[in-house]
Known about the structure:
heterodimer, A: TIM Barrel, B: 2 domains
Amino acid sequence: MTAPDFWEVLNRAINTGAQTPVRDFDMKIFHEASRLVKDHDIKYDPEVYVPNDDSLADDVWSAGIELFLELGMYCMSSKRVIRFEESEVKDALKEVSDSVEIGEGSEKRTVTRRGIGSKKPPIIVGGVIESDFPEGETFIKLYQSIAEDPLIDGLYVGPPLHTSEGHTVRMGTPLALHLGRRMASWAREAIRRAGRPGLHFVSACPSAIADIAACNPEDGVRKSDGLFISVTAELKTDYEALGKTAYALDYGCIRATHGGSIVGGWAGGPEGAAVVSIADFIASVMVYQHNLDPVYGDHGLTRCPGPVPISSVNPGMWGTELTGQAIARNYRGLNGRFFLTAAGPGTEMQFREVAALCIASLASGRDLFCGGGIRRYKVKPMLGSALENRFHAELGHAATGIKRDDANELVKAIVQKYEKKVTKDGGPWGYTFDEMYDLKTLTPRQRFIELYDKMKDEMKDLGLEFRY
Amino acid sequence: MTKEEEILQKLSDAVLNFDSDAAIDAAKASVEAKISPVKAIEEGLAKGLRVVGDRFEAGELWLPHLVLGAEALEAAVKVLEEHMTIEDLESTSRGTVVIGTVEGDIHDLGLRIVASMLRANSFRVYDIGCDAHTLNFIEKAKEVKADIIAASSLMTTTMPFMKDLIEALETAGIRDQYKVMVGGGPVTEEWAKAIGADGYGKDAAEAVRVAKELVKR
């Protein structure tokens, strides 16, 4: 085995990696990615949402590996570059496991590879990301309502709420530590109330101390649960992410890694972002140690600062699906996907965005879907409910087995219904949890049940057959 | 085309081609031809950078182009500055901005975009980078006599540091000397108002528009 262990990776991050100004590293990303796009003749087609070109997918994969070998990963805390030899990357990729067990008891699930066009349904991890909820009971009820859906295989819990014990929380402070601990215990209480005490969940606090505090076999993150560890765009890590990795390896819980590039940023245009996205993914493989169990990764082109800020429209969708396929074809481990929407909960637009993202990701061979429908922009608190999570899960089953060309046509038809409604600050805000749900009975209000059925009928009219 | 027009075009083209060496050469030619340095900046270099900014907004160019274009402009301005009076220098700048991402926040991409777009619109920009302590913003603002302090945050758990910035300015009794702008993924106009910021930009274009408004007041 020549893949370096994590302690050697840390040594490179802390002691031996070349010290480099971040500006030089960032500009090198752009120059190298631009060169590789040209060398590999990678071209963006704005008419295509779900590409069906294996050779293009393989080219993006090769270019991404080449880019990672050329650049490595930048540690922002030490300002050092963590570089790897080609043989180290090759060996690490060979050692990656093709399955992972999540959850416990009757909630144990084995996540396995699906592959492009697979007829096997994906693992569905529900949750509400990028919104703020009150501490305690309301938060518990939100996650309880999501966990009560039997199609949900796990939960994503984070980022942190805005307050802890009624006080404003700041990154890396003792209040953040306390909140990380409390959120994990509330998540566990939510799944206990839902009658699913072994259900898997991921704690996703940005600071290492908060996620580490969340680990507790009794009422926090267990070994069958996970810590969320991100690659910062582009190709960057820091001591927070490395600290989480170190602790997760010592504790033995799952590392749920995340990376994705940004169109319009250091990667350049859609083609460059696709190449950098693969390099980001390889960085998570090497630095967050995908060759050591238990782990699963997700990646995507999640957002961009240019005129189209999300991945439920092009160019984000083209790049995300192309690189998803590149990973599905060339990587033996697990590959998940986040769902970020422009519209908020309880709107037709968000249901359509969830549908388009789900169908595209199924066709591209993603193994694990994370987050029901996540409004990209925070405009008011309590945006998120179990309803969009349910839609996400039902669609994940209904569209399983769809071929890429069919998916492309379906997605095109769905995207056309909302793409003009995407604005620089997202889309319609949507409705809050208490507007959508009766919090006493934890059931959706009639108006939203009707909307749900209407959107499901719309998908049936497009040819989808729902199993649930 | 007159010789002056030719040189102004070269200055603009150097920025549009992201070529710092060509920008320096054109700046030297401008000095030799006794073109007003103010004119060279405004009708040559800044004109080119505005086009880069417009093309970025249209999704035709990317962040690295903004950075390289701004670097070409700054390289040429260094040559021209030696031949400018203090009044000249002030007249070529809309205002001075100290910009950074607040303490605990390592996200710098939005920061770089806004900094470059401000440069493209003739602001003098001092970028203090990410994870910047509140007092560093203030020290830099004092040092460069800033008009605006612009703070960015990408996480809800770092947004409170924006409030600290305003409180620290108030505590020091210098709040009225600076306009404070805030922005970043989770930041909203409501938050900006709640903490007493003077301006909020939901994206780089709006940040530039707001900055222009703030320096007028």
